[in-house]
Fold this sequence. Notes:
Largest sheet: 9 strands, mixed
Shape: globular
Number of domains: 2
Number of helices: 10
Distance between the termini: 56 Å
Structural class: alpha+beta
Amino acid sequence: MIEPFAVLEQIRDALxxxxxxxxxxxxxxGRGKELKFVNNKIIKISNGTSxxxxxxxxxxxxxxxxxxxxFDPENIKKxxxxxxxxxxxxxxxxxxxGIAKGPFKYSSIENIYDPKISEISEKEILELAGQGIDAAxxxxxxxxxxxxxxxxxESFLLTSGDVKATEKSTSAYFSIxxxxxxxxxxHATVAExxxxxxxxxSTGHVAGKFSKMAKGPKKIEPGKYxxxxxxxxxxxxxxxxGGALSIYNVEVGLSPFANKIGQQVAxxxxxxxxxxxxxxxxxxxxxxxxxxxxxxxxxxxxxxxKSYLYNTSYAKKYNTKSTANAGLIAPRPTNIILEPGKxxxxxxxxxxxxxxxxxxxxxxxxxxxxxxDFSTIPRDATFLIENGELKPIKEIRLSDNILKLLxxxxxxxxxxxxxxxxxVGTPTWCSHVAIRDLDITKPVGA
Length: 446
């Protein structure tokens, strides 16, 4: 087994000798298990390991970013030569202003590494999956399918800016789709850093219950509806909002939040954070990609847009401070957190006289990133809300605007949870969210 810092020091020193002014190297060693199930049966369990390093080098403001997977001396030598040669064909980036300069002091974060996940056996993984499957079937589902993933990662960071950092993290993810028949299904996920909180049974119960409730869906007329989103559904939209607050996306026209700092973008009870130090956060770590110690940044406070997300270079460009969100090329969110409200989900349903309850989304697409116009398709259990009663519906599309969506939030439940899914790649913490007057249309061909 290679010694990561020894390899990284070798690469850093060689690149500096080749003329690089700045170097950032990140080595990652991962180990994991994956289980897949179809039609209530386990079809595959696999184990995997990986080692890789990312290399960021700057030659007179010419930026090269690449990865290396093999660490034998000849391959390292070739990689360094290729980086130097490639840099000579690049144009300088005039608005690049450098990486962070250390050294920094780091403090540990609670609950991002669980040795029980690292030591989990195949038998325990089978039991966890079985608990989720059985729970869905107990609720009335006929078939289930999904995935369970267990992972452990060790990371090492070394830069020419006097940064040296290392940490361990663990993750556990379970996704289950339960089907009653071809038209009635429910989907639920759970994602944690800690095995004790990794409740596959409750997740299976949610998916199975939704599948049974979704039996016999009917079509409804397009129009404006109040909409209640489950945490799984709203996280798909909230992740876009979190990413759109990167100053990079603002600058290149991929964000509807340009020139809106200090403006009211949501009701006063809405607060949004990016928190790289959140205990138990799957996006948490002691530092960002260039070594700046992570922090909690309020991006929306009392409905007002407070801050974009910055790395060191962009912070210098805009005469502000890094929010510890490097991305070396573009700042990026860590954990996106919507502050929970005080309402129960049942109260939000009662407050909607006639509306729609969406439990899952897919195919979220933006027609215009700058204005925030988007469309998305509700998937799995979807319901018409009428006087507190839920009636299953089908074949609808949500076509609206992300700024309007924020402005029209009417309620946030207290049931905050961490979401990862096929549609949500950044750990996103949110609750049930109610929103007024959204445009419901029909999918093409419906």
